[in-house]
């Protein structure tokens, strides 16, 4: 078995059939499809059982164990050399696995490969394509961190990634301590083991709809502690100059301000005020944020990191990122 497509799901009946069909219709055929149901109360199990493809297996948990547990449970059932986590409201382009498997076969040192993805609405209409790198390449850990400190999670959503199973076993499971950024945390642990492959063409679709977990958490401002923790991990793993550190925290402050404004828009008051106060605390006077907006977001300046993980400011965008 070459690829295990792991689909953790909970009450996703509305989009699950399209998700499974996108996996079963891949041009790459040497796959198994594992659906791990987290005790759904809708017609999820009936939808899975309606498929006659012998490669599809359903495993149902007796009670809801949380997102991280369900992802890890799905992975524990996998037998393939490579693992593709496919969120149950997302979908894959037909050539996704073929293209990503090829890159991992050609780059045995790479621990995983990712690619751009299209963000679609509840009806499947493309909203935008999330793409940063302009060319196929392998990213070192230091390069990845340099990019993430400016652009956020460059690896992307689980559905965009194909992981070498042996690397996942070494890196460890998804953490239950980071409910919002559990994937970002795992990507960093994996990247510490070897290069990350990047293919520049979009190969998956990420669906945004009102019930999306990440949207609900961000509306309520629940991801701030995760953002702080991930940023501390990244800055602790490289050696930034004092100014580079201030810029990185300025970007985080900006994300907190943006979240606070979103919270106010949705009628919240208490947590947006706290978010504003946190933003000012991590970037007093918003000097770092002003520098980020004026020079880094515009691409005038960027970060670079050498083999010794020295993080410095450079002229031009970080790596070879597009606008």
In short:
The protein is of the alpha/beta class and about 325 residues long. It has helices spanning about 15-25, 45-50, 65-75, 95-105, 140-150, 165-170, 180-190, 215-220, 225-235, 240-265, 270-280, 285-295, and strands at about 5-10, 30-35, 55-60, 80-85, 90, 110-115, 115-120, 125-130, 135-140, 160-165, 195-200, 205, 240, 300-305, 310-315. The strands form three sheets. Strands 3-2-1-4-10-6-11-9 form an eight-stranded mixed sheet, with helices on both faces. Strands 5-12-7-8 form a four-stranded mixed sheet. It has a three-stranded mixed sheet with strand order 13-15-14.
Characterization of the model:
This protein has twelve helices and 15 strands. It has 323 residues and is of the alpha/beta class. The chain has two domains: 3-210, Spore Coat Polysaccharide Biosynthesis Protein SpsA, Chain A; 215-315, no CATH class. An eight-stranded mixed beta sheet has the order 3-2-1-4-10-6-11-9, sandwiched between helices. Helix 2 links the parallel strand 2 and strand 3 (56-60). Helix 9 (224-237) packs antiparallel against helix 10, helix 10 packs antiparallel against helix 11 (270-282) and helix 10 (242-265) packs across helix 12. It is globular.
């Amino acid at each position: 078995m070459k690829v295990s497509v792991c689909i953790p799901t909970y009450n996703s009946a509305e989009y699950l059939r399209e998700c499974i069909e996108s996996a079963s219709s891949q041009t790459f055929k040497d796959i198994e499809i594992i659906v791990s149901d987290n005790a759904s109360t809708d017609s999820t199990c009936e939808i899975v059982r309606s498929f006659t493809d012998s490669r599809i297996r359903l495993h149902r948990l007796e009670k809801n164990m949380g997102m991280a547990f369900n992802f890890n449970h799905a992975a524990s059932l996998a037998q393939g050399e490579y693992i593709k986590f496919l969120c149950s409201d997302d979908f894959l382009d037909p050539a996704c696995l073929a293209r990503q498997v090829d890159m991992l076969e050609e780059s045995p040192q790479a621990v995983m490969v990712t690619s751009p993805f299209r963000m679609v609405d509840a009806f499947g209409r493309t909203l935008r394509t999330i793409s940063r790198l302009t060319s196929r390449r392998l990213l070192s850990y230091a390069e990845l961190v340099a990019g993430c400190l400016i652009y956020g999670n460059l690896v992307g959503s689980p559905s965009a990634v194909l992981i070498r199973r042996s690397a996942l076993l070494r890196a460890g499971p998804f953490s239950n301590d980071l409910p919002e950024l559990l994937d970002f945390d795992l990507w960093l642990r994996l990247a510490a083991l070897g290069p990350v492959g990047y293919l520049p063409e979009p190969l998956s679709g990420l669906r945004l709809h009102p019930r999306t977990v990440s949207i609900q958490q961000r509306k309520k401002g629940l991801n701030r502690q995760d953002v702080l923790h991930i940023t501390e991990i990244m800055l602790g793993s490289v050696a930034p100059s004092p100014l580079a550190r201030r810029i990185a925290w300025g970007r985080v402050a900006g994300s907190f301000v943006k979240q606070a404004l979103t919270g106010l828009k949705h009628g919240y008051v208490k947590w947006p005020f706290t978010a504003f106060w946190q933003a000012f605390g991590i970037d007093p006077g918003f000097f770092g944020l002003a520098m980020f907006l004026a020079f880094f977001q515009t691409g005038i300046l960027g970060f670079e990191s050498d083999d010794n993980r020295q993080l410095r400011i450079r002229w031009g965008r970080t790596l070879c990122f597009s606008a």
